[in-house]
Amino acid sequence: MRASWAETIMGFAVLAFAALMLTYALGVSGLKHSSGTYEVSARFGEAGGIQPGAKVTVSGVKVGSVSDVTIDPKTYLAVMHLTLTKDVKLPSDSTAKITSDGLLGGAHIALTPGGAEDDLKPGGEINNTQGAVDLFGLIGQFIRPQGGAAASSADSAAKAPAPVAPAPNAPKASSDLPEM
Fold first, then answer.
1. Cβ neighbours of residue 77 under 8 Å, at least 6 residues apart?
2. What 3-state DSSP class applies to 71?
């Protein structure tokens, strides 16, 4: 009987610890009540691995997150829905850019406020966007320039010195040499 009470108390302790960890995780993740946020969208030519939950920043400070990523079937552009905190009012001509967190890190969306007097409304769209840069593609172009082997052999042939013509009175072949 005593062992069953100990197991019951231990079970409650595990549940309390799990609830505590869940509360901590929600607090750290920055999820807030939906009444303090609004949603805008942006279209990108290259999504760059952005997934729902990626952070959205202004001047390096987190102001929201990506709530959904879809593709527009007509334009084939990546449509990202951004959930921003209500206290951040962005001008209507703001810019959204996909940037990386580091060389091997993830990606996030950096917003740059514009200079317009009117603010971006909830449900509005950020028109000025810049998609992700393919870092490995750029490195590949630097290591192996476009044009392939045909261009490199043509370049090396163009850089090779021209053959030198023999002197006018030089013998043409070894058979033309006088015997000794």
1. 43, 44, 45, 71
2. strand
